[in-house]
Amino acid sequence: YELDSLKKSTDESQILLDPNTFSKDGTVAIQSLNFSYDGKTFCYSVSDAGSDWSTIYFMDVASRKKLDDVIIRTRSSSLRWTTDNCGIFYATYAGALDNITSDNDSSTSTNNGEKNVETGIEVTRTGAQEIYFHRIGTPRSSDICIARCVDDLNEHSFSVETSDDGQYLIASIHKGTLWESKIWILPLLNLSDSIVEQPNWLKLIDNMDFVYDFVTSQGDLLYFRTNAQAQNFRLISINIKTKEIKEIISEDKDNILEDVTRVYEKYFVVRYLSHVKSILYLYDMESGKQLRKFDLPIGTISVWGDQHESEIFIRLESFLSPTIIYICNLADSLDASLTLFKQIEFQGIDLTELITEQVFVDSNGLDPSNPVKVPMFLVHRKNLQKNGENPTRIYVYGGFSIAMKPFFSIGALLWIYHFHGIFAVANVRGGGEYGEVWHKDGYKSKKLNTFYDLNACTEWLISEKYTQSNKVSIGGGSNGGLTVAACANMRPDLFANVIIEAGVLDLYRYHKFTIGYYWCGEYGNPDIPEEFEWVKSISPLHNILKDPKTYPAILILTGDHDDRVVPAHSLKYSAQLQYQLGETMNRLGRPLLVRIDVRAGHGAGKPTIKRIEEVADIYSFISYSLGAQWHD
């Protein structure tokens, strides 16, 4: 990928930075980036071989030349500039620089006693998260620590934003990956000149009962998207000095308020999620009045805008539509039409022959007296015959309040068009499809609901004659890998094969590796007896069936530099499968395969050629074990 720049929306783009030049094999990639407020300096973080550890560099935009500043060993870091353009805030972890002698030495890790271990393959638990301030033109060793995790488990994490006028630094403190947060405020009286080590923060919200996502500021007013007294979220303002709360946009009882972007000084572009589909509105900032709905096709929407600019960019994609970017200039009119700005041209498959449908499946879960409707997208050929013979791939995630919204996938289209298959996405509990209520109905002690939902979706596809069990493949990555592996143990009769990508498979020990302890709020802490019972019944590694009559074919994928879900999960799980079920799998003629990618991590930054090879292997495995034939 290349980063393009343009002075005006009507200009031809220019290459600002080309990551394809970073390495011969394409495994060095940009992780995050940001421009200074004056647009003169560009900072970006780079990861090597898929590792979550990164190095931050700076570039002078006008000359395209790198600055001397280099910040090594950062992780899970957003890059936030001070409004005076003098420096950035970034995240790292305690011990990240132990025994590293040079500001430029990022090739090895020595975290927590691991000596001379290549970045990306260490497994030791990280230290406490820390937020630093770096002033341009100074060495990394001079950076100032402004916040540090202090809880016993080091599971609190920070993210920071600057207010629009630069007078305040806003810190969100989360417990691991949970969205509920405290909000602390740091006055920056003289902007970056006032930043000191471990300052005294103003604790605006000092509990973790609700979600507070910072949106924008206006003087002493800070605006937040929150689910406080609004399970579907609302927009509020909080006065920093008086702590007075005012509701700006009230809760929509039917749709999730998902994102708010301030544009053109006094307007909000507000994105809602309605049954896993995006809808977009324009609101007045002061009155909270809805001014218009943007007329857009069904799909997944994201918005880019700035409070000082009248132009907004709207990105849209869906299962059958590659990325389209529209531009809307509110200076022309608040009802200005959308103009096509960029569109990816797609060739090779006639998308008009395909169709997307959404169904809602009854799932009893842990409480049969209170079943829920689980949304599921189905993408297939228009001339599909419901004869129970269609090879079907179900993709799932189901965790961390992440919604699986429509996305464009070349691999999925290849499956549909050339194998005449069905591609399904099951929006099971644990995700964020219906806000935190949906999430919390599929985490901790209720995690089994996630798996019951996937099983229910599979049974529905079979009962409705879309497919049959020996034609079904389920797949997921990371938490989704846990989901499908757990379902293979629960209902091996429902599936012909299972694709597990970088799965969380050892729930007894996941919290002992790198940042795994951040997930205790999602799965439960195995060191606490009550919470150990939650993971005991679902951990894929520890619940492999002893002597099953049937079991699906298994393809396990991991990367040798995955330092988020370490490869030990996949390797231990595959070894245990081979030990317990090797003879069974041979008897059934169902393969057990492990694919270990080299110089690859959890997925981010993977070059195109590696993605192509991986997709080819996945669909070769699926087609073989389902008996699906290629059609030109």
- Describe the biggest sheet? 8 strands, mixed
Distance between the termini: 30 Å
Top-tier CATH class of the domain at 351-626: Alpha Beta
Provide a count of the helices. 8
Oligomeric state as shown: single chain
Structural class: alpha+beta
| Mean pLDDT figure | 93
Strand order of the largest sheet: 29-30-32-31-33-34-35-36
> Radius of gyration in whole Å, from Cα?
25 Å
Number of strands: 36
Mind telling me which CATH architecture of the domain at 351-626 this is?
A: 3-Layer(aba) Sandwich
Based on CA inertia axes, which overall geometry fits? globular
Q: Please state roughly what percent of the residues sit in beta strands, choosing from under 5%, 5-15%, 15-25%, 25-35%, 35-45% or over 45%.
A: 35-45%
Low-confidence stretches: 106-116
CATH fold name of the domain at 351-626: Rossmann fold
Could you name the CATH homologous superfamily of the domain at 351-626? Answer: Alpha/Beta hydrolase fold, catalytic domain
Helix content: 10-25%
Structure description:
- Among the domains are: 252-345; 351-626, Alpha/Beta hydrolase fold, catalytic domain (Rossmann fold, 3-Layer(aba) Sandwich), CATH 3.40.50.
- The protein is built from eight helices and 36 strands.
- The protein has an eight-stranded mixed sheet, with helices on both faces.
- The longest helix is centred in the C-terminal third of the chain and has 21 residues, at 568-588.
- The chain is globular, with a radius of gyration of 25 Å.
List the helices and strands and how they pair.
Blueprint: E1 3-5, E2 14-17, E3 28-35, E4 41-48, E5 53-60, E6 65-75, E7 80-81, E8 87-93, E9 108-109, E10 117-118, E11 129-135, E12 144-148, E13 156-162, E14 168-175, E15 181-187, E16 202-205, E17 212-218, E18 221-226, E19 234-239, E20 245-249, E21 256-263, E22 267-274, E23 277-284, E24 290-293, E25 300-304, E26 311-318, E27 321-329, E28 339-343, E29 354-363, E30 372-381, E31 392-396, H1 410-418, E32 422-426, H2 435-440, H3 448-463, E33 472-477, H4 479-490, E34 497-501, H5 520-523, H6 529-536, E35 553-559, H7 568-588, E36 592-597, H8 608-626
Parallel strand pairs: 31-32, 31-33, 33-34, 34-35, 35-36
Antiparallel strand pairs: 1-2, 3-4, 4-5, 5-6, 7-8, 8-11, 9-10, 11-12, 13-14, 14-15, 15-16, 17-18, 18-19, 19-20, 21-22, 22-23, 23-24, 25-26, 26-27, 27-28, 29-30, 30-32
Helix pairs in contact: 3-4
